[in-house]
């Protein structure tokens, strides 16, 4: 049996002396008149990279999504259409504002929300559609925007997993009214915890600045007048400095992610019964996590597959489980009413895992992981 000599982790950042240097500099200097200097730099770099006007640094992507929904005035009695298969952080903020998520199926190739399922789910209470760029794959943003326009509802992008991906030439984060990025330690750009709200919309931007600062008008640094009860969602300056250093290296980081995927593709691409991340014509995938989905006919579910890798000293993650299948949504029948129980997405979520995709991956480690997968599958057939 192939056993990795050292545990191969599933995810992790690329941190150089530059990150340490800027974090230390911020700890020394990001005070008094300079307190927002690193946040402002990080925000400008993100907005420019994504290709939108505004970026607002926040403590995490969950906060960014919460702020977007609140700024759009979504609340009790409203519904937001979301994919059934995603990390729960995409959907939990819908409940924070008192609205009801409506879970719908995903596409079999990109694993993103199915525009036909979205169309079928639109009703009188629908206020927004939230697309998630899963594992770096891009949603069919054109189809989603058409639906949103036709029905007069908002479109929101959860691009937490897709920094650097493109759809028809435009970068992830530039679709819909606003988008959310995450800088959790496992993400493409990592600051430990952290997030960014990006938008092209001036009014939405102003509204977000007020909402994330306890309802103080943007620019009210002296009067401390609260116009409403709101939230406290600001990013720490040292965290922002880490983000600046990461964004200085963004092209290298994305190139590394794409190289990791290529190493796996070369070793696993021809293997029967497996599917890797898609990169359809007209899109570019920054491959946050290399993901392999097994043909259900192989009879190996994701948790058994993970256990096999674990025996070989290799860490993996399960494909996100359908939210409709989770205890967390047990008392939300309205959320689950439009999921198709035998949809292909349900099978994908049962038979998929993320392979090690952290920045400490090397071609030698890809050899070990790919060899392990071949060995596991050979035992099955
Ligand atoms: C990581 C992630 C989030 C949440 O990011 P946090 O910064 O942890 O709040 C949201 N949506 C998706 C799809 C994610 O992968």
UniProtKB/TrEMBL annotation:
Its EC number is 2.6.1.-. Pfam families: DegT_DnrJ_EryC1. GO terms for molecular function: transaminase activity. Keywords: Aminotransferase, Pyridoxal phosphate, Transferase. Belongs to the DegT/DnrJ/EryC1 family. InterPro entries: DegT/StrS_aminotransferase, PyrdxlP-dep_Trfase, PyrdxlP-dep_Trfase_major, PyrdxlP-dep_Trfase_small. It comes from the Bacteria. This is DegT/DnrJ/EryC1/StrS family aminotransferase.
């Amino acid at each position: 049996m192939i056993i990795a000599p050292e545990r191969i982790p599933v995810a992790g950042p690329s941190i150089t002396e530059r990150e340490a240097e800027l974090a230390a500099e911020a700890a020394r200097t990001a005070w008094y008149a300079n307190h927002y200097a690193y946040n402002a730099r990080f925000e400008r770099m993100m907005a420019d990279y994504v290709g939108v006007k505004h970026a607002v640094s926040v403590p995490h992507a969950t906060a960014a999504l919460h702020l977007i929904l609140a700024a759009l005035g979504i609340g009790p009695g409203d519904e937001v259409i979301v994919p059934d298969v995603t990390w729960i952080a995409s959907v939990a903020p819908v409940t924070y504002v008192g609205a009801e998520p409506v879970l719908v199926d995903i596409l079999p190739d990109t694993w993103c929300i199915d525009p036909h399922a979205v169309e079928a789910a639109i009703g009188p209470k629908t206020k927004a559609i939230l697309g998630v760029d899963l594992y770096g794959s891009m949603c069919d943003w054109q189809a989603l925007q058409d639906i949103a326009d036709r029905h007069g509802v908002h479109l929101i992008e959860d691009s937490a997993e897709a920094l650097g991906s493109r759809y028809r030439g435009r970068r992830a984060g530039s679709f819909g009214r606003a988008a959310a990025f995450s800088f959790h330690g496992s993400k493409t750009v990592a600051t430990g915890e952290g997030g960014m709200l990006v938008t092209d919309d001036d009014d939405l931007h102003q509204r977000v600045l007020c909402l994330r600062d306890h309802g103080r008008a943007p620019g009210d640094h002296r009067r401390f007048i609260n116009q409403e009860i709101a939230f406290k969602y600001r990013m720490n300056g040292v965290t922002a400095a880490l983000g600046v250093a990461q964004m200085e290296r963004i092209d290298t980081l994305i190139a590394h992610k794409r190289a990791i995927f290529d190493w796996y593709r070369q070793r696993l691409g021809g293997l029967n019964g497996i599917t890797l991340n898609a990169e359809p014509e007209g899109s570019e995938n920054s491959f946050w996590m290399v993901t392999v989905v097994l043909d259900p006919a192989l009879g190996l579910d994701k948790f058994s597959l993970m256990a096999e890798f674990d025996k070989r000293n290799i860490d993996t993650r399960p494909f996100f489980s359908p939210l409709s299948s989770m205890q967390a949504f047990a008392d939300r029948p309205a959320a689950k009413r439009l999921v198709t129980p035998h949809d292909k997405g349900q099978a994908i979520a049962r038979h998929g895992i993320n392979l090690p995709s952290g920045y400490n991956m090397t071609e030698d480690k890809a050899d070990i992981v790919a060899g392990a997968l071949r060995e596991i599958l050979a035992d099955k057939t």
